[in-house]
Design a protein that fits this description.
single chain; mainly alpha; AhpD-like; 9 helices; 72% helix; disulfide oxidoreductase activity; peroxidase
Length: 180
């Protein structure tokens, strides 16, 4: 499994996704760890087994064991936080003043550079649609020195990986197969 496997699995009508996957996989605006971790965290957030297996297989050799664990942890903790903080943001009222009472220790000690973990959390939060989390993580990575172009690249990866997952699910449901 690899990025090429994913590209081959996409139907012809998803040609733009194939092209985006290829160009983003070769993006030079992020460090190798930032790029690989963003792909892994985004794949896990996509909730599609084929996408997860392909991307993790592609990027595991490019990440240390600690970085791979941190990318997985970013997807896991944001899976919880994005629901909770999206609720707080949508409802407003007293909820924002109440302590969350949810364990989030990995955010303080992710095992990799804090900026990388925050970037991965931003990508997952974009996929999960939590505006409050996106704003918070974007602010943190910008304060840590990442440029708007680097942030945009991470979100482009998240958007493309998510779109690939959605398209593959639809292709299965519709019986669409790639052209030979």
């Amino acid at each position: 499994m690899s990025i090429e496997t994913l590209k081959a699995a996409l139907p012809d009508y998803a040609k733009d996704l194939k092209l985006n996957l290829g160009s983003l996989a070769n993006e030079i605006g992020l460090t190798q760890q930032q790029l690989a971790g963003t792909f892994v965290a985004s794949a896990i957030a996509s909730r599609n087994a084929t996408v997860i297996e392909s991307i993790v297989a592609e990027y595991t050799p490019k990440l240390s064991a600690e970085a791979l664990s941190a990318a997985k942890a970013a997807a896991a903790i944001m899976g919880m936080n994005n629901v909770y903080y999206r609720f707080v943001h949508m409802v407003g009222g007293d909820y924002a003043k109440l302590p969350a009472k949810l364990r989030m220790n990995v955010i303080a000690r992710p095992g990799v550079e804090k900026v990388d973990f925050e970037l991965w959390s931003l990508a997952v939060s974009a996929i999960n649609g939590c505006g409050m989390c996106v704003e918070s993580h974007e602010k943190m990575v910008r304060e840590a020195g990442l440029s708007s172009e680097q942030v945009q690249t991470a979100v482009r990866i998240a958007a493309t990986v998510h779109a690939v997952a959605v398209t593959l699910e639809a292709a299965v449901a519709l019986g669409d197969t790639p052209a030979s």
